[in-house]
Amino acid sequence: MGTVEPQVASDAQTQLTDGFQLVIDALKLNGIDTIYGLPGIPITDLTRRAQAEGMRVLSFRHEQNAGYAASIAGFLTQKPGICLTVSAPGFLNGLNSLAHATTNCFPMILISGSSEREIVDLQQGDYEEMDQLAIARPLAKAAYRVLHAEDIGVGIARAIRAAVSGRPGGVYLDLPAKLFAQSIDAAVGKKSLIKVVDPAPKQIPAPDAVKRALDLLRGAKKPLIILGKGAAYAQADADIRALVEKTGIPYLPMSMAKGLLPDTHEQSAAAARSYVLPEADVVMLIGARLNWLLSHGKGKTWGGKGHKDWGGQKFIQVDISPQEADSNVRVDAPVVGDIGSCVSAFLNEIRSGWSKPPAEWLNAINERKTKNIAKMAETLAKNPSPMNFHSALAAVRDIVKANPDAMFVNEGANALDFTRSIVDMYQPRKRIDVGTWGIMGIGMGYCVAAAVTTKQPVIAIEGDSAFGFSGMEVETICRYNLPVCVVVLNNNGVYKGTDVDPTGRDPAPTVFVKNARYEKLMEAFGGVGVYATTPAELRKAMEEALRSKKPTLINAVIDETAGTESGRITSLNPTAKKK
Ligand code: FYN
Ligand code: ADP
To answer: Is 348 exposed, middle or buried (0-12, 13-18, 19+ CB in 10 A)?
Structure first.
């Protein structure tokens, strides 16, 4: 069946190589050893040959999930995650994750096979005809097409540089079917490849920008540091921690920056979020944008009178993108550079001395924090029947505490929001979630990439609705025998399972089959399925999954009335006026 050819075809005189081989050689030359994708015309042999050459080729059931896997692999490794798809529909399925990577600043390359250029350009109706390059361009940081085997080296080098340099993002690489079979002299081919030197060059911040920022911070009475996923991406963990601890400034981690310092750190202001945002006078953003997740830096969240009013804070923004500052409100001290270099420049400057923030500020935060944490502890201690989000997540919280190395995937609405504030993270880059768009669908793709790139066990906390977007990939998880424990918090629907169709004809748009047995899906492919209705059962099943490392799906049945419309972001969900 297989059509795997030997690495180099030869005729009497010349050793030949071809497009397939050059793509593989170019990736390997640049230290890229994993492909997430889905085989088919025209890239089937590329997947076979890449595998035969020792690359890890992970085949998914739907390109969107392969793409999400590639995007988060990029975040976790600082190397572009590769997603490989077929043309037109496969490409379009992968495009979602390409846009996701670009939006989230994750380095990723979507490589798609495409149909014959001459036919596509004349719109003559080719097999899977589509002008993929044009479609990808607005959603990608960069988009390239390679037409000749001699240019594969340049094409891949450009794609790698574009993905990881500066602000990382998604890159599209269009490889037409005809390219793969093109043969060229092997020596010429080899010479054409490029090993990219310094793909993500350091960007050192200007000394006056560093000084301006520190002067502003020094003068603050109520300073706050906000750590975003750019800070997590930068892998400057020790320096970031040193900066927070040496300055003594309270910090707020954005969702995927949780664990950069342990969530239990005394300077964490997470449990006093709604207090510190409006109260702070100077806010240093490190790898976090003032987008919707931070209410655009203004409005009531920040103490502004109206929903668009400035709260009066001064902002310092540390970011690799020179265009980010002033995107929403005035930034008084932009510091442009890579986070590693910026934070180390700050540390150099403050070595000569730094006074901790006023005790009044720290005490006020602590007071709020203590109150909120106590309130939370009270709620978590309850053991209602049926189980609800809180009692289920209390068990998850303990398991994560006991297994801080485990990767942690989280998506949903309520399942996302409750988990974020209940489950503490203890190490950097363990928590990976819905990101900048607040999407659903990343779940199983992220699980595969997390297991493959980190070799750690993976725990996924999934809303039942969110799980549905990638649920079929439990087959992928079983096929590669990955140590993934999926917990589906099952309340029979989107948000909750209690809506009814007022006409009595159909199920309401937000409800699913009641009492669905999600665990059987995992069993169907040889994994372990567990039906859990109490926190004790959930805890036991998670412990067993982590011990055995077997693919496991726990159907955690929770109260179908639990949950609120849209979780914590109800305000974004317009509701029709009640008649
Ligand atoms: C946080 N909190 C805590 C703790 N941590 N209390 C006690 N203990 C601990 N450890 C409190 C915190 O102070 C807040 O209460 C509350 O929990 C919620 O904290 P969170 O989640 O940090 O804050 P908030 O307001 O929800 O943050 C806004 C947000 C966030 C936009 C950044 O909601 C978010 O990341 N949303 C993404 C949502 C999303 O993408 N959804 C996809 C849905 S898909 P107060 O301080 O009292 O306010 C389609 O539906
Ligand atoms: P969050 O959602 O956690 O707030 P965002 O995705 O909004 O985080 O922000 C991440 C920011 O980090 C982006 O503006 C991006 O340009 C920046 N960034 C990413 N990597 C680096 C890096 N290595 N150095 C500096 N800034 C970075």
So the answer is: exposed
Which residue has 């992968």 as its token pair? 94
The answer, as to whether pTM is greater than 0.85, is yes
Q: Which of 504, 462, 496, 477 is nearest to 567 (CA)?
A: 496
Ligand nearest to the CA of 342: 2
Mutate to test the pocket of ligand 2, among 76, 227, 289 (most ligand atoms within 8 A of CB): 289
Distance 420 CA to ligand 1 centre (A): 7
Phi, psi of 528 (to 5 degrees): -100, 130
Contact 176, 155 (CB under 8 A): no
Residue nearest to atom 2 of ligand 1 (CA): 271
Model confidence at 135: pLDDT above 70: yes
Residue 187: count other Cβ atoms within 10 Å of its Cβ.
11
φ, ψ dihedrals at 68, nearest 5°:
-60, -40
What is the CA 322 to chain-centroid distance, rounded? 23
Altogether, the residues listed in the chain come to a count of 579
270 Cβ inside 6 Å of ligand 1: yes
Q: How far is CA 255 from CA 404, 423, 471, 531, in A?
A: 16, 11, 23, 29
Q: What is the pLDDT of residues 391-430, one digit of tens each?
A: 999 999 999 999 999 999 999 999 999 999 999 999 999 9
pLDDT at 564 (0 to 100): 84
Write the DSSP symbol of residue 268: B
Q: What's the gap in Å between 489 CA and the centre of ligand 1? A: 18
| Res 577: pLDDT | 60
Q: From CA 209, how far away is CA 11, in angstroms rounded?
A: 62
Residue to mutate (ligand 2; options 71, 164, 167, 293; most atoms within 8 A of CB) = 167
Given a contact cutoff of 8 angstroms between Cβ atoms, the answer to whether 71 and 103 are in contact is no
- The Cα 410–Cα 271 span in angstroms is 19
Is 207 exposed, middle or buried (CB count within 10 Å of its CB: 0-12, 13-18, 19+)? exposed
Report which of 236, 242, 233, 281 is spatially closest to residue 265, judged by C-alpha positions.
242
Q: Minimal CA–CA distance to 169: which of 97, 228, 262, 115?
A: 97
